[in-house]
């Protein structure tokens, strides 16, 4: 069961990445979620550089909250870092995950923080 779930997500991820690439004008916002943490980074694929990143790992503001609220904290933090780095619009890469739950709350809070996608 777990192996086929991973294969399914990898297949979806390849299909998404065929269409989505981050440029220096509109970098890619990539989301990764594990069972306990959520990570997000803004990547310029043309240069192969990460412009900004945020996660719940060792994040004091995200402690003692449920996972959706933690994702909201990460989205706001990422939006602040991106705007400091000069990025205003991004392309959203859900990385094979459904646009639901933690992924959706991270995206919504990043939009509230000032990112456009």
Rg, alpha carbons: 14 Å
- Strand percentage lies at 15-25%
Named at the architecture level, the CATH assignment is 2-Layer Sandwich
Biggest sheet strand order reads 3-2-1-4
Contiguous low-pLDDT stretches (5 residues minimum) are: none
CATH fold annotation: Nucleotidyltransferase, domain 5
Distance between the termini: 34 Å
Number of strands: 4
Mean pLDDT: 94
What coarse outline follows from CA principal-axis ratios? globular
Tally of alpha and pi helices: 3
Output the helix-strand order.
Answer: HEEEHEH
Structural class: alpha+beta
The CATH class, by name, is: Alpha Beta
Helix content: 40-55%
Biggest sheet details = 4 strands, mixed
Number of domains: 1
Structure description:
The protein has 117 residues and is of the alpha+beta class. The protein has a single domain (2-112), classed as Nucleotidyltransferase, domain 5, CATH 3.30.420. Helix content is 40%, strand content 20%. The protein has a four-stranded mixed sheet. Helix 2 runs parallel beside helix 3. The radius of gyration is 14 Å and the shape is globular. The relative contact order is 0.20.
Please outline what is shown here:
The chain is an alpha+beta fold. The protein has helices spanning about 1-20, 65-85, 100-110; strands at about 30-35, 40-45, 50-55, 90-95. The radius of gyration is 14 Å and the shape is globular.
């Amino acid at each position: 069961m777990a192996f086929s779930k991973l294969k399914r997500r990898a297949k979806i991820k390849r299909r998404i990445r065929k269409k989505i690439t981050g440029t220096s004008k509109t970098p890619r916002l990539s989301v990764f979620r594990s069972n306990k943490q959520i990570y997000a980074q803004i990547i310029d694929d043309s240069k192969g550089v990460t412009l900004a990143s945020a996660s719940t790992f060792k994040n004091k503001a995200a402690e003692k909250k449920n996972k959706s609220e933690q994702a909201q904290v990460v989205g706001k933090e990422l939006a602040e870092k991106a705007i400091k780095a000069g990025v205003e619009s991004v392309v959203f890469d859900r990385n094979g995950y459904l646009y639901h739950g933690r992924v959706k709350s991270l995206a919504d809070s990043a939009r509230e923080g000032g990112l456009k996608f």
